[in-house]
Design brief:
Elements lengths: L19 H10 L9 H15 L4 H55 L2 H10 L6 H22 L5 H10 L6 H19 L2 H12 L8 H11 L7 H20 L2 H7 L3 E2 L1 E2 L5 E2 H14 L6 E4 L5 E4 L5 E13 L2 E14 L5 E7 L7
Parallel strand pairs: 2-8
Antiparallel strand pairs: 1-3, 4-6, 5-6, 6-7, 7-8
Helix pairs in contact: 2-3, 3-4, 4-5, 6-7, 7-8, 8-9, 10-11
Length: 362
């Protein structure tokens, strides 16, 4: 008898039909009871006992041999039948299992309806019955993805850009989309121009929404506008009155109004150096008379004033500002300015300049 298992080819005991592993698998996984060939040895003992009692009887010996052959043949056919049945079951089971895996993989791909989903199916089932269909669906998604990105290149719609990232995870356009989201988020923060808006931008960077090309500027502006010192309501009201009055007079180029809010001598007036207030206001009036363009208007967000009082009774003030001007009958707004002032103990401005939203801003 062969010493190789007919199922796996491994070594098996001479008296066994299969190796130990296959026998266990058949009996436990498939609940098939295997015949025991050892019964042949028992028949030999019984017949051997008869031989011992009639060892001189040649006819009895021949009869024994004939019965032995018949007994072996009677056991061989059931054994072969079991082998064939088990082998057929293995083949059937493996075919059904692979078919089920492919069907479930295709169902997952259809449900996901994504590039990644179809790629997973094609990788797992290169000979699958839906391979060509999966490839066609994948190519259609890639074409739609490229077309969608072309439409979103210049969009200002943050929601549409974020939807694109969810719809096409792992897209080759992901980095470009995130750059666009970063830029638009920064423009939104500049438009609001307050500590909360810059804080929100920094939190989005920390959460990984985008890289944060403007993170340093956001942090600097947040520190400018975040009120970290205790506030005296009376001082704050006086500062707000000065800021609001100064920019109202500057928008109208009101000579008397400007004199009211400027100190007698101003150390710095935007880009100009130290000068008396009369000279400053006079130059502003002449510049306004010469200009052919619309006069700038200024709107200070006095509710977002941030200030610090120094030991020598000087108030260091930061305040958000929006500039606007009329051109071709339309008002154009330019947000994102932060004005930096120094006020004396009488709340008069003796130092003023501004941080622009971008270097080329007016």
């Amino acid at each position: 008898m062969s010493l190789q298992c007919p199922l796996c080819g491994k070594h098996k005991p001479e008296e066994a039909l299969f190796c130990e592993d296959c026998s266990k698998r058949i009996q436990t996984d498939y609940e098939v009871n295997l015949p025991e060939l050892i019964q042949t040895e028992k028949s030999e003992d019984e017949v051997g006992s008869s031989l011992n009692s009639a060892n001189d009887n040649e006819d009895t010996l021949q009869e024994f041999n004939s019965r032995k052959k018949k007994s072996a043949k009677s056991l061989l056919w059931p054994a072969l039948t079991v082998v064939l049945l088990v082998a057929a079951f293995f083949i059937y089971n493996e075919t059904i299992r692979k078919g089920n895996l492919e069907r479930s993989g295709w169902d997952r791909a259809l449900k996901a309806n994504s590039v990644g989903g179809y790629l997973d199916y094609m990788t797992s089932h290169p000979s699958g019955s839906h391979f060509e269909e999966a490839n066609a669906m994948l190519m259609r998604l890639k074409q739609n993805e490229a077309a969608n990105w072309e439409q979103l290149k210049t969009t200002d719609n943050l929601s549409a850009l974020r939807d694109f990232l969810q719809q096409y995870p792992g897209s080759p356009y992901t980095s470009l989309v995130k750059i666009r989201i970063d830029s638009l988020s920064w423009m939104g923060a500049l438009k609001l121009n307050n500590a909360a808006a810059y804080s929100d931008y920094m939190l989005q960077v920390q959460s990984g929404d985008f890289r944060g090309e403007y993170l340093t500027m956001a942090n600097n502006r947040y520190e400018m506008l975040f009120q970290s010192y205790p506030v005296n309501e009376a001082d704050l009201d006086s500062i707000r009155m000065t800021v609001n009055g100064f920019y109202s007079a500057l928008s109208k180029v009101d000579y008397d109004g400007l004199r009211q809010y400027l100190a007698p001598v101003v150390d710095r007036f935007f880009e100009s150096g130290k000068a008396p207030r009369e000279r400053i206001t006079g130059e502003l009036l002449m510049a306004a008379a010469r200009t052919q363009e619309g006069i700038l208007q200024f709107e200070a967000d006095v509710n977002a004033v941030q200030y610090e009082k120094t030991l020598d009774d000087v108030y260091k003030v930061n305040v958000p500002l929006t500039k606007s001007f009329l051109r071709d009958g339309k008002t154009k707004e330019m947000p994102g300015y932060i004005v930096h002032m120094k006020l004396d103990s009488l709340f008069r401005i003796f130092h003023v300049y501004e941080t622009k939203p971008q270097p080329d801003a007016p």
